[in-house]
Design a protein that fits this description.
Mean pLDDT of chain B: 86
CATH superfamily of chain B: Glutaredoxin
Largest sheet of chain B: 5 strands, mixed
CATH architecture of chain B: 3-Layer(aba) Sandwich
CATH architecture of chain A: 3-Layer(aba) Sandwich
Number of helices of chain A: 4
CATH topology of chain B: Glutaredoxin
Helix content of chain A: 25-40%
CATH superfamily of chain A: Glutaredoxin
Shape of chain B: globular
CATH class of chain A: Alpha Beta
Strand order of the largest sheet of chain A: 1-4-3-2-5-6
Radius of gyration of chain B: 20 Å
CATH class of chain B: Alpha Beta
Largest sheet of chain A: 6 strands, mixed
Mean pLDDT of chain A: 87
Radius of gyration of chain A: 14 Å
Number of domains of chain B: 1
Strand content of chain A: 15-25%
Oligomer: heterodimer
Strand content of chain B: 15-25%
Number of domains of chain A: 1
Order of helices and strands of chain B: HEEEHHHEHEHEEH
Low-confidence stretches of chain B: 6-25
Amino acid sequence: MMLGAAVLLVAGCASDGGAGATGSTASQAQFLRTNADVAVVDFFDMYCHSCQTAAPHVNDLHALVQKRGLGSRIAFYAVGWGNTAMEADLYRTRFDVPFPVIPDRDLTISSRYGKFRPPLLIALRREGGGWKEFYRTTDPTASPEAILDKIRP
Amino acid sequence: MKHPSLLIGAVIAAMAGACAPQPTPGVVPRTLIHSSGKLKPVDSRLAVRVGDRAPDFTLPAVSGKSITLSDYRSRKNVILTFVPAAFTAVCSAQWPGYNLASDVFARHDAVMLGITTDNIPSLHAWTGLMGELEFEALSDFWPHGKVAESYGVLRSDGTAERALILIDKQGVIRWIDVHDINVRPPLEELAAALEKLPR
């Protein structure tokens, strides 16, 4: 039943990571499907305590982006590195993540950005019809203002 | 002071201490994590089966308590999570996640007990760096690995398997997962086993 619920969540709750997005557990197909200029990707592992510590800070960064009126230009995604649907959803629920959370058990998304262990926060901008990484930090607990200065479109 | 060099030494030592990187609370520094490489997936033979009465035990916890399995009889379902060793990679990224699953466990009237064959001081240091675990961490150090052995999850090198064992309120084993030691068990499988517990 639990498993079924997790599958339903993945199948049914996909949403854009841009303006007005509410937290949900999204499918991998939804990753970077946004009209925003910049995408912030927060790689977490539900089991990693430093990721749990970082979660409220990434929420703060998201809130700051909304407050500065940049919500339509900067989309947010949280990608659960090595996490199943249920694991990613527990993380989303516990930390009240207000943007799409995508399970990535087989590292299908994560492996595109090199070999790493979370926490890792990157920013991508549109370039040549695709997305190009232009910012990376392994310390998402840094000041949201300082991070926003570096990722502002 | 008779020996000015001692004073200078003390000042240098104090400065060095002040400048040394301090660990972030709740985070095990990666330099402290031992990489064990790829290990034999399972290196023990189970001594219990589903349907058996769970071997009882009393073990010391990092919290200072003494935990006896049979004390939960008639009150709580119990999830035993054996992990191989403190300060190893997969284990350090397993137990903290169970904090987030505490609501799932509570919904099934279950408590989790973590067990390793490390001694209490080592467990204390390791779990302290991982932040506050929301379950008891028990030391099966002495007699070394006796509890792990009674379940048949003691490896030949004295560490425990990465194993999850679900015990119902009657003290009967309902589910066993002796997992590949190199891989973290997905939460869905434990959740599914909890769902099957008698209500």
